[in-house]
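User: Hey, my collaborator sent me this sequence without any context and asked if I could get a structure. I don't really work with proteins. Can you help?
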Amino acid sequence: MSTGTQLSKQSRYVVVDTLRGLAILGMIWAHVHGLAPRMLPEAITGAISQMSGAATPLFMLVAGTTIAILTRKPMEGKQRWHFRLEYFLRGVGLILIGLALLPWGGRVDVVLSYLGVTFILAVPFLFASSKVLSISAVAILAASPILASIIGQALITTPELLYAKVSNNPIAFLLQWTFTGRAYHATWLLPFLLLGIVAGRQLLAHKLPAKTIGLVGFGLTAGVFLLYVNPQQIAGHYVRGSYVEMTFDLARAMTVYGLCLWLAAVKNPKFSSGFKKISMPISLAGRIPLTLYVLHVLLLFTFESRGWTLSGPQGLWPLVVFVLCLGFAVLWGLTLGVGPVERFLGVFSLRHNMRWAFAAAPANLADFGFAPKNAQQPSPTLDPR
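Assistant: No problem. I've predicted the 3D structure and written it out in structure-token form, which is a compact way to encode the shape of the chain:
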């Protein structure tokens, strides 16, 4: 089995899409699991839920890795300026989509605006050295809970700034997205993106085995859960946004991130081909993650507004959500390729022109091990050392 340290030009998109797909499906699971009956044994659903809790941090790690891939080749001043502008506009576009979804959000705290603010805050770091990125990530991780507590306490006397959805105050939304969001906020997400850039660079430079990332992540996950998370949850003292939760989220995201890269780098041709085929729906979901996020928010709102509670006799609705999202991802990916939300952001960020937005770019089945027997097989998902 390979250490999986080198990302090849063709195959890195397959494994990155797979990771991104796992992240978006984890977000969907997190939103439907709490409303669903016990269709699976508690041990299984509990384990899945523990890992899906790190879906957003995993998404940010993958976003950082994507930045590392896109900035691998040297860029001159004008190219760097345009790249920064692209990510700034991408952030603005995500905020606008998040705002548009607010009336349909229901019980879902729509993450897109939080991601948008995070991308905007990341603009100054896009070409920073790995050392600067690492130090900045640690500093922001350390400061995030403190800032959230200080700002949250200061806003108690001004409810219109503390409860954004009630007041619809733009400043309240900005504070929530940046500092005080209960489920997530930009100062909590930004370190994961910065560390994703560092991890991507190390993988591209053959300096960090994916196996090491996965094993360290698993060790941290087990240790933090047994020593801190589980005792605090039993005692009812587990605090969202605390150092314990942030460390636990990072460890779980590292576990999935490293394990997926490691498995994708297995040298055995049969295993590699099988892994690609099995993960194809997830990879296709990872090619249209924002579209799937919007789709599942609209589906959940439709179910709830019609009284379909996702429990009792309608307990199969969570499964319906997954089947519809995966089915849409496979159908769209094999016919049109890029999702409608992704097309909008590609044009809005000035990365692509309008002609690109209306062109079909279906996925290549050979990327997933479905090439004809007499055809040349694609290169491994991870080019082993």
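In plain terms: The chain is about 70% helix and 0% strand. You can pass these tokens on to your collaborator as they are.
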